[in-house]
Write a structure and sequence with these properties.
The structure is a single chain. By secondary structure, the chain is an alpha+beta fold. It has one domain: Aminopeptidase (3-Layer(aba) Sandwich). It has six helices and ten strands; from the N terminus they run ββαααβββαβαββαββ. The strands form two sheets. An eight-stranded mixed sheet has the order 1-2-3-4-5-6-8-7, with helices on both faces. It has a two-stranded antiparallel ribbon with strand order 9-10. β3 and β4 form a beta hairpin. The longest helix has 18 residues. It is globular. It starts with 9 loop residues before the first strand and ends with a strand. The relative contact order is 0.14. The C terminus is likely disordered.
Length: 210
């Protein structure tokens, strides 16, 4: 059997990260129809509630049970309103590495929710799951996502040239594809000083395996 992530919830001071459920479908569809989401993701446009329901009931569970990753709804702790989504994907269990991505609803931007959620996932991944690397890829023009990467302590490793297709509005209201670069970022356990990890005489950090 492939290793898999557990079906978990993570709490922060302001947020709860939990598995998606069908009650999230309307808010998820609305969030994914936002113009910035359309510009910087490969989400089909327009994004329908049927598409959101398929994500919640089929795609997200399949990502976890296959071992490829995990999709988590990000909600406000007090109101339970859907703030966004955090995903781990392209997981390599031998290397103990995974790639993180996130989407934040338009109404919730500017509150630090993306960095708070991403940091919570990183600490859980390194602490509980004993992973060694978290990777993040941001489109060259997506400065908001780059700021999140910097805020949580990611290190820029380089540029993948012409590696991503972004989208831009046309004069008639449609969309056109724009090829752009991807910036590759990484975060390691020692970057966060995760509890439960020791450092050897050479300064190399490694987990205290249970």
């Amino acid at each position: 059997m492939n290793p898999t992530f557990p079906d978990i919830s993570i709490s922060t001071d302001r947020l709860t990260l939990r598995p998606l459920d069908e009650d999230d479908v309307p808010a998820l569809a609305e969030m994914m129809n936002d113009e910035l989401v359309a510009a910087w993701t490969a989400i089909p446009q327009p994004y329908t509630e049927d598409g959101a329901r398929n994500w919640v009931t089929r795609y997200a569970p399949g990502e976890r049970t296959s071992g490829r990753g995990i999709d988590l709804a990000v909600t406000e702790f007090l109101t339970q309103r859907l703030v966004g989504i955090v995903q781990l994907g392209n997981t390599n269990w031998r290397v103990r590495s995974s790639e993180i991505s996130y989407v934040i609803a338009p109404w919730a931007r500017g509150e630090g929710y993306a960095s708070e959620a991403a940091l919570a996932v990183a600490r859980w991944l390194f602490g509980d799951q004993k992973f060694e690397r978290l990777e993040l890829r941001t489109a060259a023009g997506n400065t908001a996502s780059q700021q999140v990467a910097q805020k949580i302590g990611c290190i820029s490793e380089g540029v993948l040239r012409n590696a991503f297709i972004a989208r831009s509005r046309t004069e008639d209201g449609g969309w056109t594809d724009i090829r752009t670069d991807l910036i590759v970022w990484s975060l390691l356990p020692e970057d966060l000083d995760v509890p439960g990890r020791r450092v050897d005489a050479n300064g190399f950090a490694y987990p205290e395996w249970n």
